[in-house]
Structure formats: structure tokens, C-alpha cells
Write a structure and sequence with these properties.
- This protein is an alpha/beta fold.
- Helices cover 39% and strands 20% of the residues.
- The protein has 10 helices and 10 strands.
- The protein has helices at residues 13-22, 24-28, 46-56, 66-70, 72-87, 127-145, 158-167, 183-211, 295-299, 304-320; strands at 2-7, 32-35, 59-64, 92-97, 215-223, 226-233, 236-245, 256-259, 271-277, 282-286.
- The strands form 2 sheets. It has a 6-stranded antiparallel beta sheet with strand order 5-6-7-8-9-10. Strands 2-1-3-4 form a 4-stranded parallel beta sheet, with helices on both faces.
- Helix 8 runs parallel beside helix 10 (304-320).
- It starts with a strand and ends with a helix.
- 31% of the residues are buried.
Length: 324
């Protein structure tokens, strides 16, 4: 079974999800399994999980857009390592052009891209046609890497057929070096964080409503830096919040803020988080303004998912304590 790693910007998450749906038949037939950073579970170290799965990947899909090219993590870390693995024959890169952007001068610009001629998926009148081209490219890659594969699912792991190439080149997995993060790095991190938390809340509210017939929810993107969320139980407002960032300017010592009033002003803050780094990666740290925030939680360095879960916990606390 071939392992596929998605390298993508979180702003393109909707297109990544759609592509994964189109790869479902290859999954069902036992030819592939997929991994992306949304598979990281609570307690895992973000960088270590990504590095491990990137190293183990047989096929790396670069989901290319202007946001992908602008992301320091996607471009400088994931893509650069992917190119090394591709050139050493340890894995195979397939660049997937999602949106119009200046990708031809990138290091992967010399590779054959999909869809055909690099036509962006978003430019197709019917995007299903574009995703089918990507699926066919993945299938063709598996066939090339396994020339004797028949139409039945492989009886032993695809990965085991190629991993000896990696074992022939012994090296340490301890390859991280300390770096200094610029204001641009931090601004980019805030933008990606806000998009992630926005999508997290919108999807979680929808699922909360689906699972509980008496619950209605409302999600609203107020502008590029603000959104609100409201939960109603039997028509009565039960809990609400507004989350925002200051964009490129800082929020009085914080980078993202939470208010328990969906229609309040930016001066009303019930919790906030600041960007911190450990010398290797960027994280979020709560300021501990929430009344239930423990000293242990305040000291934690949170990933984007951890930050989203932390804010979501504040929103759901009135519902879970039965105070509504």
C-alpha cells in the first residue's frame, strides 16, 4: 500500500478534502493510504508528526497555490525535503496545481504537473474532471513504481517494496536546527491560524447541530480578521463568542483574542493567545484569562488544532456544565 502525503496551505483545505474524496476508490482497493496534518492527534508534537510522515511517504502531493508558495512551512520545509527525497529516489512528487500562481519558477516546476499543462483545478468548468486527472496521475505513478502490479490489491505493503532504498542510506532523524522567526513568519502564522480556527468552528458548529436536534448554530465571517459563533438550544441563545486577530498589528500583547459576546467590540476580551516559539517552530500560548484555565494549560505550547480546541472548550463550557 502506497502512503500519500499532502503538502498544502490550510487556506486550500476545502480543495484538499475534495481531492481526498476522489481518491476514495484507490483507498477502498487497498492501493493507497493518505496522511495530512489534520491527522495529528492531541498530545502529538506538530513538527515531529509531519517530519515522520513526510519521511515515510511514497508519494508526496504538492497542492500548489499562491498561499502554498507564500507559506514558509510548505515551501521551505515540506517542499524542499520532498524534492530531496524525490531526487534521491526515495519518494515521488506529484505537483497538483490548485489555483493560478507563479509556480513554474519553483524547484518542482521542472516536474510533470497535473492537471494537464498545469491548468489550475479552479479553472475547470467541472472540477470533477480536474480531480479525475489527479487521480489518474496517482494511479499511473503507482503503476510505474510497481511495474508488476496487477489489478488486485497488493498482498504486501507497497512501502516495504521501496523502504530498503532508504535503509541503504543511514542517517540521523535528528536534523532540526534552531532558527530565528521574522515578523513575516509570525504574520503568516497568524493568518493561517485564523483560517484554521475559522474552519474548525464552522465545521464543529455544523456537526454539533447535526448530532443534537434541539440545537441550532450560526457561524458568521464578519471580515478577514473576525468571525462569530452562536449556539441556540430550542431557539434560545445558549452560548456565543467572537474570535479575531489584529492582522499585521498586534492585539495589546496578544495575537488572537476570544470574547464571549458575539456582537461586542475588540475591547472586550475573555481570553487571548500569543505566538511563542521554542527555537524550532511557532506555537500558541494562552494568557490564562479564561476562568477555567489551569496553570498547566497556560504553560502549554499549543498547535493550531490545540488552540482551536482550547477556544472551542470555552464556547461549549456552558453547555457541558448544564447551565443553559
Amino acid at each position: 500500500m502506497a502512503t500519500i502525503f499532502f503538502s498544502y496551505s490550510h487556506r486550500d483545505e476545502t480543495l484538499r478534502d475534495e481531492l481526498e474524496i476522489h481518491l476514495a476508490m484507490l483507498k477502498r482497493q487497498g492501493f493507497i493510504e493518505t496522511w495530512h496534518d489534520r491527522r495529528i492527534t492531541a498530545g502529538e508534537e506538530f513538527d515531529k508528526a509531519i517530519s515522520k510522515n513526510l519521511e515515510e511517504a511514497d508519494i508526496i502531493l504538492l497542492l500548489v497555490s499562491s498561499d502554498f508558495l507564500a507559506s514558509n512551512y510548505c515551501y521551505d520545509i515540506e517542499m524542499q525535503r520532498a524534492m530531496q527525497k524525490h531526487e534521491q529516489g526515495e519518494s515521488h512528487i506529484i505537483p497538483v496545481i490548485l489555483l493560478s500562481c507563479d509556480w513554474r519558477s519553483a524547484p518542482f516546476g521542472k516536474l510533470l504537473v497535473t492537471p494537464t499543462d498545469g491548468k489550475p483545478i479552479k479553472k475547470f468548468p467541472d472540477q470533477d474532471d480536474a480531480f479525475l486527472e489527479v487521480v489518474n496521475a496517482v494511479q499511473a505513478t503507482i503503476t510505474r513504481l510497481q511495474p508488476h502490479q496487477d489489478s488486485t490489491p497488493p498482498s504486501k505493503s507497497y512501502g516495504s517494496a521501496v523502504k530498503p532504498q532508504i535503509l541503504d542510506i543511514p542517517r540521523s532523524s535528528n536534523l532540526r536546527i534552531r532558527k530565528t522567526f521574522s515578523d513575516r513568519d509570525r504574520d503568516q502564522f497568524v493568518e493561517e491560524l485564523f483560517e484554521y480556527i475559522s474552519n474548525f468552528f464552522e465545521n464543529s458548529l455544523a456537526e454539533l447541530s447535526n448530532r443534537n436536534p434541539e440545537v441550532d448554530t450560526h457561524f458568521k465571517r464578519i471580515d478577514a480578521n473576525h468571525f462569530s459563533a452562536i449556539v441556540y438550544i430550542r431557539g434560545k441563545k445558549a452560548t456565543e463568542c467572537r474570535i479575531w486577530t489584529g492582522g499585521s498589528s498586534r492585539l495589546s500583547g496578544s495575537d488572537i483574542a476570544y470574547s464571549s459576546n458575539a456582537s461586542g467590540s475588540d475591547n472586550s476580551i475573555n481570553e487571548s493567545m500569543s505566538i511563542v516559539d521554542d527555537g524550532y517552530a511557532l506555537f500558541l500560548q494562552p494568557l490564562g484569562m479564561a476562568f477555567f484555565a489551569s496553570q498547566q494549560n497556560v504553560k502549554k505550547l499549543l498547535s493550531q488544532q490545540g488552540a482551536a480546541e482550547y477556544f472551542w472548550g470555552i464556547l461549549l463550557r456552558p453547555l457541558q456544565q448544564g447551565s443553559t
